[in-house]
Amino acid sequence: MALLSMLSFGLLGIVPAVLAALQPGPPFVRLDKNDAMVIVADMQEGLYQLVKDFDPVVYHNNMIAHSAIAQLFNIPIVITTSAETGPNGILPKEIASMYPSAPLIRRNGEVDAWDNEEFRSAVRAQNKTQIILGGITTDVCTEFLALSLRAEGYTVFANTEASGALTDKLAADANQRMRDGGVILQGTFAIVGDLMRDWRNTPGSQQVLPWFDTYLPAYGFLARAHKAAVQNGTIAPGEEAL
Fold it and tell me: Could you list the active site residues?
């Protein structure tokens, strides 16, 4: 009994010390669909061919998916291209046809899109503080713009699946510099999940699952398999023991 009392007293002394040591960490910055916009930076048919850190088929899907986020959540999008009459090429028709009325800023010289006055005005006109960004290349068009936006006070979410580089090292170096500059690095799945927040929201399961089926087929097929199991499935011998 005396030993139990001593142990209880000791634990009571430890708990306050542990709680005192638990200091709040950095704030968890969440995407808010009411305060977010998408930027598509220099995703052009010529520049696409410079992307070597992704399989070309995978990256094609990634950049179209990034662009389609704005459509899914009905949030603003600003698109910019660089010297599209030269080897950089035009905006892919898959993106252009998705947003025929969106601001499209055709830059003729500025490497960093933020150096272009028309682009700055288009972004500011959306009156949002959170920017979801992807572009080609990661170490130039995405990194330069992301850090410029951070310097202006924007919260920047760089979609690491929607930006491509010539090498893995260039992408890693650019991502590290962006991270050091306060840019939040996320992939498409995380971005969509945070914008949605809850499967019961709108957009929610009804809208997002078909979107995943198109742009994230791994999750789309997971949902298809569940649907097939519910509609047609029977328990195989041995499964009842699992």
Answer: 141
